[in-house]
Design a protein that fits this description.
proline dehydrogenase; TIM Barrel; FAD-linked_oxidoreductase-like; FAD; 302 residues; globular; single chain; binds dihydroflavine-adenine dinucleotide; alpha/beta
Length: 302
């Protein structure tokens, strides 16, 4: 109920301006977002890399309906990748891209998003790192996986995110579990109808485990994106060679566990930065009541 309300608020322009304009929100947002500028993102990356972790960086933004904003997002990624290379951080820093931020929702959006994603992949290739396509709501899944297929012709290291809450995902995992295929498996963070997604948390967890088994039994590179101790334990039990797969968590969540896992595994942290934090922030509040309590406590004690 609360999750549904928060995810509805994530799409509401009224709520957005209320939350964004409040001077009290920003310090709380900074728990989950590395900063608004690229320099803060690079500084957060350097800290994480020095602590033995890798990163994937997300220039925040989504659902762009303006071609110039999509172009600005591409430029931001190209600048980010050059800066990471300049600081000697590119080898530890993948970038995560939402196709809706680079034009997927514009007229002729699939072509525009593919061209824009291609430019980001070219910049990543130049500095020797990789790109992963984020998963958005289920209406975009086919288009995003189609774009992935096209990108992989020239950039075989391009990866994608699959969401275990979608009923289709076990099959998508099987289709993508081939050599060289990088798949980030998460539970899923959007409000979805029961016709396409498991409505119940325990069903989502069971689906996550099934998907994990498919990916781990395949020849690709599974990226186990979760903070859930049970999923982490199962992934460790399935134990493949350390170099063949990795754990991933979000910036600001379970820092001690991230450090612990980094001792024995590749541990990659998803680092969002930029001013367009509203949708991302609301999804973090929706997925865990304790995050919302943290937010409300911070507001009340100011
Ligand atoms: P869940 O939220 O079910 O929590 C299970 C348990 O984990 C909790 O009971 C608790 O024990 C522990 N836990 C969770 N959060 C905690 C916290 N803050 N502090 C302490 N313990 C905590 N989604 C999407 O739809 N598209 C995408 O592209 C991505 N990308 C993505 C990348 C990466 C790297 C990650 C880690 C996640 C995503 N997600 C995502 C988000 C994902 O779908 C999901 O909403 C969150 O990861 C929360 O799900 P969990 O698997 O962490 O477990």
């Amino acid at each position: 109920m609360l999750r549904t309300a928060l995810l509805a608020a994530a799409g509401s322009p009224g709520c957005r301006s209320l939350v964004e304009r409040s001077p009290l929100t920003r310090p709380v947002v900074h728990r989950f977002v590395a900063g608004s500028g690229v320099d803060e993102a690079v500084a957060a990356t350097a800290d994480l890399v020095h602590s033995g972790r890798s990163v994937t960086l997300d220039h925040l933004g989504e659902d762009t309906t303006d071609a110039s904003m999509a172009a600005a997002t591409v430029k931001a990624y190209v600048e980010l990748l050059a800066l990471l290379a300049g600081h000697g951080l590119a080898a530890n820093a993948d970038v995560s891209v939402k196709l809706s931020a680079v034009g997927q929702k514009l007229p002729d959006g699939d072509r525009i998003a593919l061209d824009n994603a291609r430019r980001i992949c070219e910049a990543a290739a130049e500095v020797g790192t990789t790109v992963t396509l984020d998963a958005e709501d289920h209406t975009t899944t086919d288009a995003t996986l189609g774009t992935l297929r096209e990108l992989r012709v020239d950039f075989p290291w391009a990866g994608a995110v699959l969401q275990a809450y979608l009923r289709r995902t076990e099959q998508d995992c099987a289709d993508l579990a081939y050599a060289g295929s990088r798949v980030r498996l998460c539970k899923g963070a959007y409000a979805e109808p029961a016709s396409v997604a498991f409505p119940d948390r325990s069903e989502v967890d069971r689906s996550y485990v099934r998907c994990l088994r498919v990916l781990m039994a395949g020849a690709g590179h599974p990226m186990v994106a979760t903070h859930d101790p049970r999923m982490i334990a199962i992934a460790e039990e399935l134990g493949r060679d350390r170099a063949d797969w990795e754990f991933q968590m979000l910036y600001g969540i379970r820092d001690a566990e991230q450090r612990r896992l980094a001792r024995d595994h590749t541990m990659r942290v998803y680092v969002p930065y930029g001013d367009e934090w509203y949708g991302y922030f609301m999804r973090r509040l929706a997925e865990r009541p304790a995050n919302l309590a943290f937010f409300l406590r911070a507001l009340l004690t100011r």
